[in-house]
Amino acid sequence: MAKFLATNGLSYLLEGILIDAKSSLTIVSRHFCLPPHCWELLTKAQERNIDIKIAFSTYDLGFEQLSFLVDSPNISTFVNPQLNANCYFNEKWMAMGSMFLHDTQKKPLRELGVMLSLEDDELLFKQVKLEIASIFQEASPLSSLTEKPLILN
After folding, report:
1. Count of alpha carbons within 13 angstroms of residue 109, beta-carbon side
2. What are residue 88's DSSP bridge partners?
3. What is the 3-state secondary structure (H, E, C) of the chain?
4. Which residues are within 8 A (CB) of 76 and not within 5 positions of it... i.e. 6 or more apart?
5. What's the sign of the alpha-carbon dihedral 16, 62, 26, 104?
6. pLDDT of the chain along its 153 residues, tens only?
């Protein structure tokens, strides 16, 4: 059954989704920026040959990070300027909520979200995955480092 999560629970689940991915990992975030420990987890998932799909509308990434996303054969990165959602999932667990995968604020933010498991919430899990698929269909591939997503402030 779906479970409500506050800041700490949501943060723990997001890291767990990155760590526990066995075959697939999907990151959908309005603003994409990863702290160093999450880049390490993403790199490890890439090295395990996990199929990784990322969609965002804005980002805060350096040249090396963009190169990593574009050059990694098992990472597909997309830009969707209309995206205003945060959803992260692997083949078993899903998190939807207000939290981005970065912590750039000087003071802690109050976050909230919902956790779904494929085992307990199969229908809802599949419905969300269908909506996420449509977000990717409407998005453009980040195929070159010259592309810059729309910054919405």
Report:
1. 15
2. 27, 95
3. CCEEEEHHHHHHHHHHHHHHCCCEEEEEEEEECCCHHHHHHHHHHHHCCCEEEEEEEEECCCHHHHHHHHHCCCEEEEECCCCCCEEEEECCEEEEECCCCCCCCCCCCCCEEEEEECCCCHHHHHHHHHHHHHHHHCCEECCCCCCCCCCCC
4. 52, 53, 54, 141
5. positive
6. 999 999 889 989 999 999 999 999 999 999 998 888 889 999 999 999 999 999 999 998 888 898 899 999 999 999 999 999 999 999 999 999 998 877 534 457 888 999 999 999 999 999 999 999 999 999 999 874 345 554 444
In whole angstroms, what is the distance from residue 78 CA to residue 62 CA? 17
With the C-alpha atoms ordered 126, 3, 97, 47, is the resulting torsion angle positive or negative? negative
- Residue 72: Cβ-neighbour burial (10 angstroms; 0-12, 13-18, 19+): middle
